[in-house]
Amino acid sequence: MMMLGKRVLITGGGTGVGANMARAFAGAGAEVVVTGRREEPLRKLEKANPSIRAVLADVTQEDSVRAMFQAAGPCDIVIANAGAADSGLLARTSLDQWNAMMAVNLTGVFLTLREGVLQMPGWGRLISVASTAGLKGFAYAAPYAAAKHGVVGLTRSLALEVARKPITVNAICPGYLDTEMTDRSIANIVAKTGKTASEAQAILTASNPQGRLIAPDEVTATALWLCSPGADSVNGQAIALSGGEV
Predict the structure, then answer these.
(1) Model-level pTM greater than 0.85?
(2) Is residue 144 flagged as an active site residue?
(3) In the chain, what are the domain boundaries?
(4) Please, what CATH class does the domain formed by 7-177+214-241 belong to?
(5) Which residue out of 28, 144, 168, 237 is catalytically annotated?
(6) Of residues 211 and 160, more confidently modeled
């Protein structure tokens, strides 16, 4: 029960990696608060596990993020996991599409980490879930990659600000994940290119030298490790989970 006595807040916690982390941290003894904009998956998690509590919140809105932390109570571990993806040629990207990617993928992380560090009672862990797109360029995903690069820079900067406190700040940067978000990316490729779903998935897995999607369990295991006693000196890192891609 490594996390016994800790309270963990996970944004975008209703599905995918967020839900996987919520179940694992609860299993390790933590009190877990999952947040998001969609009530149904959050309530489903809450109903299935007495250690998980759901709070509706929109990380793109400052007042909503503040209310989220007020509802959660003091949190020892804050994981900024909420995100969204879009794709297309930069030349055909509208300002609305650009702003939407920045709002959830970068501004949402900024608001979450800022409020998270302000309310942190002492020992603390701040984790942002970024992407390998935050470490390299991605064709047809420039706004998403720009936002994730911003997350990595934000993480490294905040890590230096809190370095003399018992707080660490790190980013986890997975490649394409075996989650609903990647399913939507595959469907988008199919719709735009006429390729089969298998062919579309092969395009994505080709970027991983191991030739596979990254399992949510791998992201969760990294987050748990970052919160363990052995990771006290791990600070300001962008940890790639990509099979050697970056």
Answers:
(1) yes
(2) yes
(3) 7-177+214-241
(4) alpha beta
(5) 144
(6) 160
